[in-house]
Amino acid sequence: MQRFKVGELVVDAGTPILMEGSNSPQLFTALHGMGLRYKLLADGKRQVVNMIFPGDFIGLQAGVMGEMGHSVEATTKMTLCVFDRSEFWSFFKERPDRAFSLTWLAAIEEHFMGDALTTIGQRTALQAVAWALSRLFIRADALGMVTNGTMKLPYIQQDIADALGLSLVHTNKTLSVLRSRQLAHWTDGTLRVPDLATLAEIAMLDDLSARKRPIM
Amino acid sequence: MQRFKVGELVVDAGTPILMEGSNSPQLFTALHGMGLRYKLLADGKRQVVNMIFPGDFIGLQAGVMGEMGHSVEATTKMTLCVFDRSEFWSFFKERPDRAFSLTWLAAIEEHFMGDALTTIGQRTALQAVAWALSRLFIRADALGMVTNGTMKLPYIQQDIADALGLSLVHTNKTLSVLRSRQLAHWTDGTLRVPDLATLAEIAMLDDLSARKRPIM
DNA sequence: CGCCCCGCATTAACCTATGACATAGGATAC
DNA sequence: GTATCCTATGTCATAGGTTAATGCGGGGCG
Q: What ipTM, to 2 d.p.?
């Protein structure tokens, strides 16, 4: 993997920032733009591990065993802050406050990963997609990226499918169910959520009323 | 959740240490024994998030939003080291080395969670079970808990099933496939892995030779 | 301008891995 | 003895995977 100049870095959509298996000497913080963290399998399957929002720290988890455990790619134009990994330790000594908030961030990530695991492991496709969309929406909202119930979603359906361990086709069908129920309209890179509460509720409980008859 | 005395704590198998939804003011380090970290769903399903081995740090991830995101329970007699959460911040200022290794631990956890996500999301039941067993075996081995290819596994099949998002029945059937292939014998709380390399390989690649005909 | 690609969304038909249910057997505890 | 918990295995039902065909918009290029 290439080495970037320390400081601020701007990359275009589609640019790989970290590559699984490589040995990156650098760490990043996302300042603007969005991205994707994923793992590739031998047979070509892909698991999207997390979506990257502004403020996310990139590369720590990845480099545990000396080499990256996953890849990171921009899905919009992104601005990143680049560190050298070697600065990291001195950082801990000199700025314990920053070190603390970093550990804090890692804890939040892990908290989220537990949710993801639970969703993929235990919930239906409908619940899972509802969960993914409402989570994206909530994160975006917290960052002021939502304007009257609408946000930019710089992903394709395959990204969501790979994040949830579902097939593209089934994800598509599930999305159109949510659309027909007026819960989430995602077209042309824009996501509209008229009723977040209901969407989030479906994510947790599944639609009991639809349980007896076929879900779709 | 009850509050424990700061210092060393010994609990019996089956004791809950943290409870999801409660607000624990304490953190733990596992010294001896093993446990289970899990989340419960409204409908009674359970997702096992991780197995706890000696050396694991407990409670950080859980307390992000002010309340626990998952529960922790001992599956053997355990010895724990108990901290007050309030000590945590001063810890960062006074012992940057310890703080660093803590963040390191968190990163390792997250690395693992990515693997778990990938396994549950993308792999077959056979691969998943092979992955779980080989991972447990490798961790145990690293801690010297393996004696001639054998380790104590203080879990029941339902625990593994809940960790992998599989049903108990299907997990059981998959285990007997692995047993019949001489890859993993798990009976009476003891796991024997005659050929870790092959087991791990199945976890990654699935058994291609069996792919054309039904797997079982 | 029209033509051909190509990536993405959509839909339909079919198939299978896995879940749900049922039942039995072994072990342990009282 | 019997109650409880766990493992084991068979049968049947289904959520979701796989494949394939269609449509559609944008970009390069004659």
A: 0.87
